[in-house]
Amino acid sequence: MLGIALLVACGAWQGSGEELGAACMDCHGELVEAWRASPMGRALRPLAAAELADLAPVADPRTGFRYALERRGERGFVVEEWLGPDGRSVAEARNEAELAFAIGAGVADTSYAALRGGRWWFAPLEVLSASATAPRHAVFAPGQMTKPGLRLDVAISDECLACHTDALPPERFPSNLAPSSAWTPRGPDCGHCHPAAAAHAEHQSSNATGPDPIVAAALRTPIERVSSCARCHLQGDARVPLANDPSLARAPGGDLLAKLAVFTGSDANGEIPFVSQTERMVESVCFTASLAREGRALTCETCHDPHRSVFETRERERVRAACTRCHASDEAAVLGRDAPCSEPLARRATKACVDCHARRTAPFDVADVEIFDHKIERKPLAPSKLAAIRVKQSRGGELKRFRWPGRPVPLDGDPGLELLGLVGADQAERALALVDAKPDAAVERLAIYHHTRGGLLESARRFEDARKAYLRAKLLDAGSAATRINLGLVLAQCGKASDGLAELDAVVREHPASDGALRNRALVKLALGDAAGARADLEAAHALLASAATARGLAEIARRENDRAAHERWLAAARALDPVGR
Predict the structure, then answer these.
(1) From 134, 306, 488, 534, which residue has the greatest number of CB atoms within 10 Å?
(2) Is residue 101 one of the residues assigned to a domain?
(3) What is the pTM of this model?
């Protein structure tokens, strides 16, 4: 639901035409059927237009925009209207976008991908599931609540999708570009969590000799087992891959923190994000104490069968059984302890231990929902009272590295990783103080470090240093279009406009849907005195993705050329796209 990764990259296309779990059905049919029916098994799916019925529009008085989710036959749309000073919808400012697919397990809420300019964006509305306090209804998405008037500006990249499916679209740029080839959204297949699942299925079906390549859960360490879930259930304020291929961090198996640096807020005061299960469980005494007990380590599947819905009756029984491994289930003592529960036995039969020992609280980043805080405590904190929704855990900008209890993390305290973490946590001003600090050699080998550092140096108008940083990033990842787009403009700012133009020409040839490359090339052409070429590039960029800023740029070029009609036309286009004049 929430975009939380610093580095975006595409993985290999797994293909999505085969039914979920088909390769495992012969031997694990019951588990596959349970997974297909579970919310997590449907974490990415085609839109069912009926799910948009009977949802009231949502208005934002801060901006004057009103949004609605509409069903039209078997198709769904998000409609945006701007209400003028008289409270009436302004026809020129009305926009709509078709919904491409649904995102999320839907236990608490569902997000939607909206198609605008041939790209996927998070719709500004989500649908909350019915709860004890409110019927099913639409609310603003977190980004829309924290930054009013985003107007379909939050991109859905493959990094966003990677926790909801292992069948990513073909590699493309920009990363939220809708694929031109057929692609069907579906939830994660068995190989998303089981290392070597495909090789195991082939081994079994071919009656091969030799060792089975599957990595059985029982042979994995507790940290490795928790890591499988932490890949997607450990949100953090920033996640930084420790290799140039970020798909390695998404792959199942191994210790996640050996592949990924996760930064969380250090000033959260008990306020938790929607996706906080691993972070909070690891803070529990139950978890830390269990690591010392042979065969009794607490992992996610101690309480949850990952193949099944949390609403199944057996899930409640599984949670109670997990607690009674170490705590008394009746008046008998376990591990030398007296019965810890003061509830009468009859009442204990109808409740799970977590009903009392894990609080239900509102997360800080999703409105109108409550979730189980996975920190197990004798006396849990009171539910959080939030003044406003926010996206990041840290409110003051202080971050800390997430770590397993009593274990070191790679490159601890490295200023380069801290720089990346701060930028990922939207703390660019703090990160700027680290641009001249010397990182470890391992961080020096990360293309994303040099790309991010280049952006910070560019913002500080240190263009020559930014040029060197982008060149280093390009050397480490020659295929990064984003780096080359930035480099092209910085070259012009360093007095090398012809070199910048050549760089951007190449990007536009390779990625004709890149409006960013066209906009930067327009700026370089202006620097070279080619106003007509700049106008053509901005018009092409606007045709790809209509933008008020691009329209204003075209209006300014028309003004300089004394083309009054074009000037007025582009100003009108900018007003229609941005009636509040952001």
Answers:
(1) 488
(2) yes
(3) 0.91
